[in-house]
Amino acid sequence: MRRTQKLALPPVRLTHLARLTTPLGIWQHTRYAEPWVEHGFSIDDQARGLIVGVWLYQLLPKQPDWLICDDPTFPEQLIEICLRYIEQAQLPSGRFHNFRDAEGRWIDEVGSDDSFGRTVWALQTLRKALPQTEWASRAQKLLELALPHALTIQPTRSIAFLLMEEEDPHRLHALGRILAERYQHTREPDWRWFEPFLTYDNPRIPQALLLAGLRLQNPQWIRIAREAFEFLAETTFSEVGYFNPIGSDGWYFRGRIRAMFDQQPICAGATVEAFLDAWQGFERYKPFLRYAQRALMWYHGDNIHQIALYDPETGVVYDGLTPVGVNLNRGAESVISYLMARIRWEVYTRF
Questions:
Q1: pTM (2 d.p.)
Q2: What fold characterizes domain 25-30+40-152?
Q3: 35: which strand partners?
Q4: How far apart are CA 196 and CA 175, in angstroms?
Q5: Can you tell me the distance from the alpha carbon of 157 to that of 267, in angstroms, rounded to the nearest whole number?
Q6: Domain spanning 154-351, CATH class
Q7: What is the pLDDT of residues 279-332, one digit of tens each?
Q8: Which residue of 72, 112, 117, 160 is surrounded by the most CB atoms within 10 Å?
């Protein structure tokens, strides 16, 4: 297997993520450099943090030269903290709370469908990656209560999250069929997409359908995923090459002008991961690898403002690009999205 050309990237530091991590969970937001404790914690961040913890736990024994971890026990701590949050969040019904305050009190009745999908994705990642561990046994117990709800979920992105690590043929078929039908219902020659709008975490939808199609060997789903990836590339990469994600201040509705700002790190990270899967799924089709590379370089200054959002000295990732520059807050979603993207990039292109 030929290796891809190595990018000149700074090392990954875990300092900022460690600073946001407490015994109760990972702080959701910051106000500039300090944790914004009034906003407490979100299960979305714990789910993403659990995935990062699992990947770091697998990587650290290999001592990769691109990863700087001052505390070798941090991956274990991260897994334990995030998994315990999810355990405490699960309701008797099998669904999960999402938000808790700084004192650990739950402040919602039940979490959103998106947070449910992300949590199931994280638990399945843990169970699959570390199957012989006590953590995997705990994840399995949570999934036994949660998974009966999977086929009741309706939002498109929530379904995509549920499909990311799903292997059960029945759920794969049922959830994948929903995405394929939505694509066929919405698709036009100039709008090859699953919905009449592009908002957040867009690449996760074709990524999920591609993975489901590969697992079930469904050529129609694989074809749809490729069309959608190509449309997304046409829409979110500028003519001069840099990644230009859909802005959150208005999004992009078919037939209207797309929003340019605010550009969010989670969109860049999802694009890196999704196009890496597309690169592998479509026999190492090089344009998809280049799109993943450009999205990764968005964090490092190859963006509309030519400003880096990742600080290699501290491990900070700023919260996005606004019309006037960088959002100087630096919350959990931003740094974890970068870590997920960067780890996947290094693993996919080095090994």
A1: 0.96
A2: Glutathione S-transferase Yfyf (Class Pi); Chain A, domain 2 (1.20.1050)
A3: 30
A4: 19
A5: 13
A6: mainly alpha
A7: 999 999 999 999 999 999 999 999 999 999 999 999 999 999 999 999 999 999
A8: 160
